Amino acid sequence: MAVFTTGEAVALDLPIARIPTRAVAFVIDVLLQLLFGWLLVMVALAVLAGVDTDGAWWDTAFTVMFVAVLAGYPIVWETLLRGRTPGKAALGLRVVRGDGGPIDFRHALTRGLAAVIIDFWGFGVFGAIGVLTSLCSARARRVGDVLAGTVVVYDRNPIPWPKLAIMPPWLQGWAQQLDLSGLTEDLALPARHYLTRYFELTPETQQQLGRALVTAVCRRIRAVPPPGTPPLHILGAIVSERQRRTLGVPAQPNLMPLEHVSW
């Protein structure tokens, strides 16, 4: 499993596809590519057989077929099926962006060209480069994935719901008045990880790490943390408010003003 941070500032845990499963999907796609290439050759022979042409026409035809089979096949399928080829679909795999979102033509084009030139064919020594780079990557990314900013994951199981922070009602009014423009992803991500992994930490780590994050976050957004409030509640309020603004959810009335709370 790996944590993907979406554009809406939420975290998703998705299972990474490893080499054995991806290899089976790759073999299925290669077999289909061979079939597709054979069909193109038959069409080219039928079209050019009765035409008085020189060798340049045949060279051009086979070059076009070569590119269509090796690069066009994965690019078209991954674009139309949002990250899937027939082989990946058979194994329950999908290519997603680094933030867990669906890919588009640009990502598919980069992956397809890198597969032909670097990972598998061309300079790839029949897949050795793709396998080695996947083994050295924590997310099993080949060169094409690194260049395109993508990851291959399992999507046969239901995608889990995003982990949204919960706003403590007694901090709602305080959080809605904050200027969160200075809270960049380099601090928001550790704060979200702290909230999602809170109960896995030891009590000492909960307090020490929480206080350090509260200090860093409040310094960045130029806010004074409410006195006597646990770091878990402060970070939960800040992250929840940031997610609410990112998602465009209307603010709810503050039912418990901060000044009425007994600390």
TrEMBL record:
<protein>
    <recommendedName>
        <fullName>RDD domain-containing protein</fullName>
    </recommendedName>
</protein>
<dbReference type="GO" id="GO:0016020">
    <property type="term" value="C:membrane"/>
</dbReference>
<dbReference type="InterPro" id="IPR010432">
    <property type="entry name" value="RDD"/>
</dbReference>
<feature type="domain" description="RDD">
    <location>
        <begin position="19"/>
        <end position="149"/>
    </location>
</feature>
<feature type="transmembrane region" description="Helical">
    <location>
        <begin position="112"/>
        <end position="132"/>
    </location>
</feature>
<keyword id="KW-1133">Transmembrane helix</keyword>
<feature type="transmembrane region" description="Helical">
    <location>
        <begin position="56"/>
        <end position="76"/>
    </location>
</feature>
<keyword id="KW-0472">Membrane</keyword>
<feature type="transmembrane region" description="Helical">
    <location>
        <begin position="23"/>
        <end position="49"/>
    </location>
</feature>
<keyword id="KW-0812">Transmembrane</keyword>
<dbReference type="Pfam" id="PF06271">
    <property type="entry name" value="RDD"/>
</dbReference>
